[in-house]
Amino acid sequence: MSDPGPSPLGPSPLGPSPLAxxxxxxSVDEARAAIAAAIRPLARSESHEVPIDRAVGxxxxxDVVSPIDVPAHDNSAMDGYAFAGSALVADAPTVLxxxxxxxxxxxxxxxxxxxQCLRIMTGAVMPEGTDxxxxxxxxxxxxAAETGEVHVPPGVIRAGENRRRRGEDLAAGKPAxxxxxxxxxxxxxxxASLGLTHVRVMRPLxxxxxxxxxxxxxxxxxxxxxxxxxxxxxxxxxxxxxxxxEVVDLGLVPDDRAALAAVIERAVREADVVITSGGxxxxxADYTRDILAAAGDVAFWKVAMRPGRPFAFxxxxxxxxxxxxxxxxxxxxxxxxxxxxxxxxxxxxxxLLVLAGATAAPLPVxxxxxxxxxxxxxxxxxxxxxxxxxxxxxxxxxxxxxGSQGAGVLRSMxxxxxxxxxxxxxxxxxxxxxxxxxxxDGLV
Length: 444
What we know:
Layout: E1 23-26, H1 28-38, E2 47-51, E3 64-65, E4 75-76, E5 80-83, E6 94-102, E7 116-120, E8 132-135, E9 140-142, E10 149-152, E11 163-164, E12 175-177, H2 185-193, E13 198-202, E14 206-212, E15 216-217, E16 228-229, H3 232-242, E17 246-253, H4 257-270, E18 273-277, H5 286-294, E19 299-303, E20 305-306, E21 310-316, E22 328-333, H6 337-355, E23 366-370, E24 381-390, E25 397-401, H7 410-415, E26 418-422, E27 434-439, H8 440-443
Parallel strand pairs: 1-19, 6-7, 14-17, 14-18, 15-16, 18-22, 20-24, 23-25
Antiparallel strand pairs: 2-13, 3-12, 4-11, 5-7, 5-8, 6-10, 9-10, 19-21, 21-22, 23-27, 24-25, 24-26, 26-27
Helix pairs in contact: 3-6, 4-5
């Protein structure tokens, strides 16, 4: 297969000025690279410690340095018998006399003499005089487990096996977690295993969010003829919340020059990032584009993608008192509900993480066999809603397109579990071809 879909945010191929003025026609890769070249992590001195049970999804502000060795002592990797590996006989059974039992958390007092062994449990401290553990299932015991004669067949174990050494996983003074990491559940368990109760995290990125248009109505209100309920603010707000962002909900903005100018002024004063949907395509009101362009160095692009096409991006000027005068970054998304979410995943998600101080990571891509042919013309990137499931033959994964692919059909986005991503130069797909897939659980 050819192009596997959009590349991760990386160096720009567009030169030193990726935000050229005026309308641009870009591929998805060019748009992503232009955004990546323009943004940098925000210089925010605000960071604070939070309890580890409230830190999931936050960006780590400082390395977590281990105060202890992990493990804190040499210990047994399994249940078995601990003894000195020097006692092993190469061509005959090694016979040892059991001299007791040692449990995890209850170290053995004294030294194990040559020719003796101890029944040992997983995680128990290796007794002095021992360096090897033979698993229970590999030995024969004559008599009681704790006092009998233990026969170790030749060749089943080598000296030093099944012993976890002190500091083997992590040495005291070494970083356990590195700044810039978005903290996951296992990370917080790791911090707890080091005896830590708090971690230092970055202030969440503040993202102002609003929808535009006279035809858009707040859910819960009566729906006038010809109008639609606002869904974008809620789907995008939920996506932001799952990224650990602090959402500043500015509601609905009518098609009115003064109202839009006022909400932009408030947004740049209060937020690091401004996300809006609707109002940036060539057919929309001229003043929308005029106000956004006047507020900063905003570029309006036509991106060769489906769904989605109109997209605006750039820095908005902020008062010098706000964030030291650093810009607030605008991402203006299409108004159609599916197009708004797809462009958020394609362009905004990774950019927000970078701005928040997180270490950028490539989007996870799965390759799955298409169950049917997919028509596609080269010259644009297509994101098609799909269901990924195990292949019936047990050989990997298969994917099938699901529901209507119209840009306004949000139900199919809700019921799908993935996007098939067909790259800019990709042509039609035959049944059985492997295609790149973005799993929704990897995106949000």
